[in-house]
């Protein structure tokens, strides 16, 4: 477990308001820090098949343990930065890759992490960049397509920029977000995107991961507007270096709890 300085950065006034209860309240909105969870347990969410546990790692990389076909399924999302960052977690059963940028896709890290039974699910552009050894373990799905791995249905949601001068970063039709249905609950990993119609149209999301940084994704106001539109029960701002999750929590409204993860040291 990381030191407190590696987990959440609040203003002095906000830290005082946080107090012993572990949650910072903005009217009906709550910012829940990862530090309020038990050591090593991650954040846990109930499904009809058992608990989902979420472990933020860094930037856009996280580990999710979920009930799947045959028992616990360990899922890594966009693992980069070297295998040492993931040394405290079991080897993955499934690795999701949203797109080809270096803060989401690293062949070196993937080759160090995959095990005998690891499967990869990528967008077509990343699939085409995989070396043969990884490609043999991989499947690709494009926007609007779906797959089932370890008994978990996975939908590919378009992830792209809609602001004119940002479209060069994530052109429409190339990159994926993902929606996983686990024990009757839906988890939405948005990938690098703005507040697209496809994001705003999501329904019945238990947990969402929403990016928030300029110029590559969106600003705080866009992210808050999108979250208010699709109303996930819990939302993790991630991929937000340089942006303020406390400011996001103050704008989201009462339908969603904003969860702060230890994404940056």
CATH structural architecture: 4-Layer Sandwich
N- to C-terminal separation? 12 Å
CATH superfamily: Ribonuclease Z/Hydroxyacylglutathione hydrolase-like
CA-based shape: globular
Uncertain runs are 1-22, 35-39
Beta-strand content: 25-35%
CATH class: Alpha Beta
Query: Radius of gyration, Cα only, in angstroms?
Result: 17 Å
Strand order of the largest sheet: 1-2-16-15-14-13-12-11-10
Q: What is the count of DSSP helices, taking H or I runs of 4+ residues?
A: 7
Order of helices and strands: HEEEEEEEHEHHEEEEEHEHEHE
Number of strands: 16
Largest sheet: 9 strands, mixed
- Supply the helix-strand structural class: alpha/beta
**Average predicted confidence as pLDDT:** 84
Query: What is the count of distinct domains?
Result: 1
CATH topology: Metallo-beta-lactamase, Chain A
**Helix content percent band:** 10-25%
Blueprint of the fold:
Layout: H1 12-18, E1 24-26, E2 29-33, E3 43-47, E4 50-58, E5 61-68, E6 71-77, E7 94-96, H2 107-113, E8 119-122, H3 124-127, H4 132-135, E9 138-140, E10 146-149, E11 152-159, E12 175-182, E13 185-189, H5 197-200, E14 205-211, H6 220-230, E15 234-238, H7 245-252, E16 257-260
Parallel strand pairs: 2-16, 6-7, 7-8, 8-9, 13-14, 14-15, 15-16
Antiparallel strand pairs: 1-2, 3-4, 4-5, 5-6, 10-11, 11-12, 12-13
